[in-house]
Write a structure and sequence with these properties.
Layout (H helix, E strand, L loop, with lengths): L3 E8 L5 E4 L7 H14 L8 E5 L3 E8 L2 E8 L4 H18 L2 H6 L10 H13 L6 H13 L3 E4 H11 L20 H16 L4 H15 L5 H18 L6 H20 L12
Parallel strand pairs: 3-6
Antiparallel strand pairs: 1-2, 1-5, 3-4, 4-5
Helix pairs in contact: 1-6, 2-4, 2-5, 7-8, 7-10, 8-9, 8-10, 9-10
Function: May be involved in vesicle transport between the ER and the Golgi complex.
Pfam families: Longin, SEC22a_C
InterPro entries: Longin-like_dom_sf, Longin_dom, SEC22a-c_C, Sec22a/c
């Protein structure tokens, strides 16, 4: 049985497959390994230059440098040094054939289909040539692996990654607080209308227009520290009307303060709607 079963070249930044060897294996285990390889290709930016994912019958090896990564599915009997030597050879062949610009502009999978034949030749060479004939190359790679071991992943790592990318991982979410207010009462509607009238009467006075608009907002929508905001708003409205004493008569001032007081009362008495026990079922 061949040591190296499948190989591909992918773009590191997005895992786009650029070229691949012909696939002659169709067993369920091998197809599952192919699926994991595709998932791993999407996450190469998270790992160092060399790594391996060990499975029951097959192993995935990858080697990335710059914009390009080479990946392979090998039998468990394949030595790591041979797998990485193969990947390095494919990488050199590919980067010698295509420049960075062409690689970066590739927009469809397997854009460099003509390189497939070169992958096949290199794969055949490593599968058919004896280890003795490649001894010097394998020794060099083995020294590099001893000095800087590749990251070792498990099958579970790739399964978790695939689950996260496809949205199958269970995520525990805390229930969001329910901020629905009680229904608006008739008196509340009246206070809104009166606030709109006061705001219209104060179009030329921006601060008073803002005050009454804010009172409408506080009544309609829930706001943290609601009581403090209401008290301060009522105080500002009272002080503002006292400041305008010379421009308004007593009835006008009482009307504005009365509307503000009614609105403040409505805001403070309108409570949050309780969440039903069977809500969301």
């Amino acid at each position: 049985m061949s040591m190296i079963l499948f190989a591909c070249v992918v773009r590191v930044r997005d895992g786009l497959p650029l070229s691949a060897s012909t696939d002659f294996y169709h067993t369920q285990d091998f197809l599952e390994c192919r699926r994991r390889l595709k998932t791993l290709a999407l996450r190469l930016t998270q790992y160092p230059g060399r790594g391996s994912a060990e499975g029951r019958d097959f192993s995935i090896h990858f080697s990335s440098l710059g914009d390009v990564a080479c990946m392979a599915i090998c039998s468990r009997q394949c030595p790591a040094a041979m797998a990485f030597c193969f990947l390095e050879t494919v990488w050199w062949e590919f980067t010698a054939s295509y420049d960075t610009t062409c690689i970066g502009l590739a927009s469809r999978p397997y854009a460099f289909l003509e390189f497939d034949s070169i992958i096949q030749k290199v794969k055949w060479h490593f599968n058919c040539v004896s280890s003795a004939q490649m001894e010097s190359s394998l020794e060099k790679i083995q020294e590099e692996l001893d000095f800087q071991p590749p990251v070792v992943l498990t099958v579970e790592d790739t399964d978790i990654a695939n689950g996260i990318m496809n949205g199958h991982t269970q995520i525990h979410l805390e229930p969001a607080p329910n901020f629905r207010m009680e229904p608006v009462t008739a008196l509340g509607v009246l206070s809104l209308i009166l606030n709109i009238m006061c705001a219209a009467l104060n179009l030329i006075r921006g601060i008073h227009l803002a005050e009454h608009s804010l009172q409408c907002y506080l009544y309609l929508f829930y706001s943290p520290a609601r009581t403090v905001k209401v008290v301060l708003m009522l105080l500002f409205i009272c002080l503002g009307n006292m400041y305008l004493h010379g421009l308004r008569n007593l009835w006008q001032i009482l009307f504005h303060i009365g509307v503000a007081s009614l609105s403040s009362y409505q805001i403070l008495t309108r409570q949050l709607q309780e969440k039903q026990s069977d809500y969301g079922v």
